[in-house]
Design a protein that fits this description.
6 helices, about 230 residues, alpha/beta, 10 strands, two-stranded antiparallel ribbon, binds S-adenosyl-L-homocysteine
Amino acid sequence: MRPDRIEQMLRTIEQECHFTGNATGRSSLRPVVMEAMASVPRDDFVPSELKHRAFDNGALPIGEGQTISQPFIVALMTDLLEPQPDHTILEIGTGCGYQAAVLSCLVKQVISIEIIPHLANLAAERLQRLGYRNVQVMSGDGYQGLPEQAPFDGIIVTAAASHVPAPLFKQLKPGGNLVIPVGLPYMHQELLVVSKDRSGQRHTRSALPVIFVPLTRNRETGGEPADNTI
Ligand code: SAH
């Protein structure tokens, strides 16, 4: 039954927040973030054969060697981004579109870039079908961000980079947060919160050790809209 399984997922997120609160600075998440997590049907974002595990607190494969992130990490990253209703957020690494859907409940506009065109098209079609009309999915290499639509109120990267991409920090508004996992492929990664203060200075703190799929480069160049861009 979906409601019970979602309740269980929310309780697990709360527990994880409690256990990691010293490191993350978030021993509980804002109620609006938990409401967004409760409202997005994660089972609609996973392959049909894995629906029975959709509300487990773990990453799951989505094809093309990629994953849907763990619910706790999605919730935590959403909270660390400090989204506000008037924000426009840039996401790098759409995957199945789950994180974008969660963010879309909290902000005015989400622009999400996915490097694998097939995943970008599937996510755009799924988000449109589920009614997330304020998400725009683009296919391309998100390392360079989207200069023509910058600056952004917040930027979230959901694949692990070896370093903080300079173009992304540049495209962040003063007062904004860039939430990004940084480290080696599949090991020694830290979830970083990189803030730009009002005078443009950078402040970085590490929130948690994490494991993400790698941020890859240059499968295709531009930021062309996916076939079903919404
Ligand atoms: N945000 C997703 C997690 C996706 S996993 C969720 O909600 O569950 C990370 C995704 O980043 C993968 O789909 C991968 O193809 C994509 N990716 C990796 N490098 C990228 C890059 N340079 N630009 C855009 N997307 C990238």
